[in-house]
Amino acid sequence: MAKDGKKADRRPGGRVKAQKSVKKRSAEVRAVPDGPGGYVADDRPDVVVVVDVSYFAVDRGALVVLLVERTRQPDAGRWAVPGAVLEPDEVLTDAAARAVVARAGILEPFTRVEQLAVFDAGDRDPRTRVVSTAVLAVTSTAAAPAGGALASGRWWPVGAIGTPAGPSLAFDHLDIVTTGIERLRARLELTDFATALVEEPFTLGELRRAYDVVWGVELEPANFRRKVLATPGFVVPTAGKRIVGTGRPADLYLRGGGAVLHPPIPRQR
Amino acid sequence: MAKDGKKADRRPGGRVKAQKSVKKRSAEVRAVPDGPGGYVADDRPDVVVVVDVSYFAVDRGALVVLLVERTRQPDAGRWAVPGAVLEPDEVLTDAAARAVVARAGILEPFTRVEQLAVFDAGDRDPRTRVVSTAVLAVTSTAAAPAGGALASGRWWPVGAIGTPAGPSLAFDHLDIVTTGIERLRARLELTDFATALVEEPFTLGELRRAYDVVWGVELEPANFRRKVLATPGFVVPTAGKRIVGTGRPADLYLRGGGAVLHPPIPRQR
DNA sequence: TGAATAGTGTCTTTCAGACAATATGGA
DNA sequence: TCCATATTGTCTGAAAGACACTATTCA
What we know:
The structure is a homodimer. By secondary structure, the first copy, chain A, is of the alpha+beta class. Chain A has helices at residues 2-8, 27-30, 92-104, 173-190, 204-215, 221-230; strands spanning 47-59, 62-69, 79-80, 83-85, 112-119, 129-138, 153-157, 202-203, 235-242, 250-255. In chain A, strands 1, 2, 3, 4, 5, 6 and 7 form a seven-stranded mixed β-sheet that branches. The longest helix of chain A has 18 residues, at 173-190. Chain A is elongated and about 60 Å long. The two termini of chain A are 38 Å apart. At the A-B interface, helix 1, helix 2, strand 1, helix 3 and strand 5 of A face helix 1, helix 2, helix 3, strand 1 and helix 4 of B. The structure holds a DNA duplex.
């Protein structure tokens, strides 16, 4: 069903270039941009689309988020999530990856990425109208940013945000980070998102500690194990075992194909 | 979600790239739009932001979606969800309301509206790069579109989509509608979204039938009642009663302030 | 009176949560 | 040996689901 729809909209239509003398049409006509002259360059509203990345990892027992220190006005000295203006020939996830590499110096790709929310307040950037399509991304390795002029990225513990020792966030990026954290917590409840936070192969103890860090709880190991193993497609067992420090060696697993948790892993009641 | 992954694989062809303005800077500089000259008119990528509305109601026992017949190319004769180009001075929900009024002739406001997803495939509109920020909206009254030249809207049963008697959808709007339906189903599970589908005051039978229609199931009246009344903030009791046809008069309720269902109303197992 | 819907009571199954018990490594 | 972690076993309480039963109206 969805396949047909996508196929249907792939047509080799030629774009009609604009030769409008009038700079802008009325809002009413704008609402019906069907004509041959629709969407032409001189007729576009002044809206800029950027992609902002709410990028998380687990590092030494803490949930961390990738922020970039701003060096120019406005909001110089404050910290922002990596962002980039969307190019006409790229999709959101590509722009998100580009933003993380170019602005924060992070070279590793996301383990997982998905849409987060659109931030559309009219005054969120003082320069012009900027609509931000934020994405939620996670990695299994909170790698240090590579060197270079643009490598001003840093992983901040989310617990430090809002404290005197923590970063001061630019624009509405505190909102973006907060929304990302809450979505991340919800995704752990309903999907196998947590597997993207640990390196393969992983033990169920490592996976459980990812839940502990993101949710700020301590899940019961026995019940967690039963729940994960009872969910088809959550993890794939391997033959290996690993000795972390002390204690009995743990079985090693790989990420499953992508599971929907039915019923979910419960959080709070 | 998985949707994003699929979309990321679809690279736009060279057609879009060939339309780039010669005035544009490199992607690397674009990634750091901090300078005083950032976001100026001559430096903006050719990306148009539209708002598309996945707008649902329950009408005579069926879930219906509001579609508009296209009268111009491309995709003339096919049906699309109401959409509008985002104006620089409005937020998404305002543009969504404007689209429904101007394009479909629907005058009643949404009972509830929230963000749905961003559709960002590079070739989703043959004319130019269009990024669609889709919203999910519902109403309690599937009112007939008002007359007028622009009132080409029609409520289609979602069950008719994909059948010979149903509408053929333009662009990737089948994807937008499908995503909206699935999100609506999920929202009924976790929130009090269903109360927005019924007119106040309502009986628990009417509320339950909204679940039945959206989910395509028949919930057990006794268990449903217990569940709803046990969830704080879901519905507010009133003193009134109503006799629908035959049968015992039912208590009337109003919408609660907006509840998060913990635990949710279960769907499928 | 019978049909239809609303509302109450209760039983069974399932599952989360707690916790005891065992397994297996390192210090 | 003790200690720490993994893994298995078992019990309990809460909630979903099924269904019998009562209540109240209209035809």
